[in-house]
Structures are given as structure tokens and as C-alpha cells.
TrEMBL record:
Record family assignment: Belongs to the short-chain dehydrogenases/reductases (SDR) family.
InterPro entries to which the protein is assigned, alphabetical: NAD(P)-bd_dom_sf (IPR036291), SDR_fam (IPR002347)
Species for this entry: Chloropsis cyanopogon
Designated name of the protein: BDH protein
Keyword list, A-Z: Membrane, Transmembrane, Transmembrane helix
Membrane-crossing segments per the record: 60-77, 189-210
Length: 212
């Protein structure tokens, strides 16, 4: 948030946590925690400052992710980002009449910049699994998934300033964009396929990636 002589005009909802794991691997408490921080946390902050933002014709910036469009082993994070996108879509339309602008930042993989997700060992994941899940999966599979996800983390861009630049533009530009996608060409291509092709095509692409 930012106070200036012109009043309260800028709110950036940036808080977020991430983890990796297939749907049944994570307990309900983890889903609740992620919804509370990544989704409800941003909503709570927005509601608290909405009167001031309307008064001063301010701006609200939300940190989403390209992972709102597809998921590669972190469906819990993807779920919260997709929900934030829809919240913003409603808010952006509603705020137009007050002169309040709502912007979404959609970074690609910046795991090396943000350290949002530390690497996970197969042992850590296995030790957290319920007995039911251990009966379905084996340690070799969990190791494969951990290796896959950790390799994605290691490919993350170290240049987090690109995302900061987008946030600054959203706050200061005379005509900010509704969405800023800050991602590599390969990541943008995945979003393009997800948006324009039938779901079966995207599922095939992601299944292939997961099998590599």
C-alpha cells in the first residue's frame, strides 16, 4: 500500500504461498491454508481499503500467475490463482464507475527469484502421505514427481525485476493494462493452447510434459 499527498491510491496484493503435490497427497488443512492466504487474504485487504481507493480513484494490483490457466503438479496453487483471476474480473468491472483501476500481474516461472517454493525431497513428501495414499502410490513414483517438480523450479528466471517493472507500470501508467503477462515464450504458448484449443489437446500436452 502507498500513502501520498494525493491520498491512498495504490494497493498491491502480493502475498502468496506455494507447494507441490497431487490432490490426494495434501490434507484438507493445507487446502484451507492456501485459500486463506492466497485468495481470502487478498480479498480481506481489498475490502479493508476499498472505501479509500474509491475516494482517491486509486489502483489495485493483484499477483496472479500463468499457472491460473494450467497446472503441472501444483493444482492447489493453480486453484487459488484461478480464483483470484475471477475475483479481479468482477472487481475491475465494478470499479470502473469509481475511476478505480484493477490490474493483474501474471508471472511465469520466477521460482529462483522469489524462493516461493523450496525444493522438495521425495522423503519429505512420502512422510506426509496418509496410509491410503501410500497404498496407492510407491516411493519411486513420488521420487519421479519430486525430481520433475524440482527441475521446473531450477528453470525459473532469476530476473524478478521484470515482474516488479510490470507492477510499477500497473501503478503509475496513465493507461495500465488489465493483465500483464510476464513470461517466457514457451510459457505464453502453453497459455495460448489452453485458451484456444479443446481441453483434450491441453491435457495431452500436459500429460506428455509430466511423463518426460
Amino acid at each position: 500500500s502507498h500513502f501520498s499527498p494525493t491520498g491512498f491510491w495504490g494497493l498491491v496484493n502480493n502475498a502468496g504461498i506455494s507447494t507441490f503435490g497431487e490432490t490426494g497427497w495434501l490434507p484438507m488443512e493445507t487446502y484451507e491454508k492456501f485459500a486463506d492466504v492466497n485468495l481470502l487474504g487478498s480479498i480481506r485487504t481489498t475490502l479493508a481499503f476499498l472505501p479509500l481507493l474509491r475516494k482517491y480513484k486509486g489502483r489495485i494490483v493483484f499477483m496472479s500467475s500463468i499457472i491460473a490457466y494450467f497446472t503441472l503438479g501444483n493444482g492447489i496453487y493453480s486453484m487459488t490463482k484461478a480464483a483470484i483471476e475471477k475475483f479481479c474480473d468482477a472487481l475491475r468491472l465494478e470499479m470502473k464507475k469509481f475511476g478505480v483501476q484493477v490490474c493483474i500481474i501474471q508471472p511465469g516461472n520466477y521460482a529462483r527469484s522469489t524462493k516461493i517454493q523450496p525444493p522438495l525431497s521425495a522423503e519429505e513428501i512420502w512422510s506426509e502421505l496418509s496410509e491410503e495414499e501410500k497404498a496407492v502410490y510407491n516411493k519411486e513414483y513420488v521420487q519421479e514427481r519430486a525430481n520433475f517438480f524440482n527441475s521446473i523450479l531450477s528453470e525459473g528466471s532469476p530476473n524478478g525485476s521484470e515482474v516488479v517493472d510490470a507492477m510499477v507500470d500497473a501503478l503509475t501508467s496513465p493507461a495500465p493494462k488489465a493483465r500483464y503477462m510476464v513470461a517466457k515464450l514457451k510459457e505464453k504458448a502453453l497459455v495460448f493452447v489452453c485458451a484456444l484449443f479443446p481441453t483434450v489437446v491441453m491435457d495431452s500436452v500436459l500429460s506428455y510434459a509430466l511423463s518426460k
